Amino acid sequence: MALDLIRHTRPRIADGICYGSLDLDVDDTFFSEAEVVRGKLSSSYSGVFVSPMRRCVKLADYLDLSYEVDERLREMSFGAWEGVSWSEIDQGEIDSWANDISGYQVPGGERFQDVIERVDAFLSGLPEGKHLLITHAGIIKAGWILRGGFSLDRAASQKIAFGDCLSIP
Questions:
Q1: What's the pTM value of the predicted model, to 2 decimals?
Q2: Alpha-helical runs (H) found in the chain
Q3: Which of 21, 50, 88, 131 has its CA 20 to 30 A from that of 7?
Q4: Topology of the domain covering 2-168
Q5: Can you tell me the distance from the alpha carbon of 142 to that of 15, in angstroms, rounded to the nearest whole number?
């Protein structure tokens, strides 16, 4: 099974704000970013799967793709941190998360291990073929850990730009 993983385009939210499960709209840069994404797509896919978040669905619609929405492709919930400036979040909590990326549960949110497990359940159910996922950075990182041979530390440290298209052969 091969995967193309696309991170959604820039969401409409100020820089420096924590978001994951917030259902944000796309930014004013959407059309130019979406055209760049269009140029990265393969000619055909066995299946196209999309996060239920608006920023992903709008991209799939714009690209005129036939797709299935799958809840397991939504971004990690940052619970009480959602919509809060990173500078306003208790530094001790951020440090606890940074020291235990997979196991630390953000207050009212998820552990990254929960994300890995739901992505594993999704990927395990895919048939053979080449699939496209339009999703989020956290889901892409989980895919790298599960199917790309990345360690947790390596995946966590990778930067994924808005509109990036990455492949797992």
A1: 0.95
A2: 30-38, 54-62, 91-99, 112-124, 137-147, 152-157
A3: 88
A4: Rossmann fold (3.40.50)
A5: 24
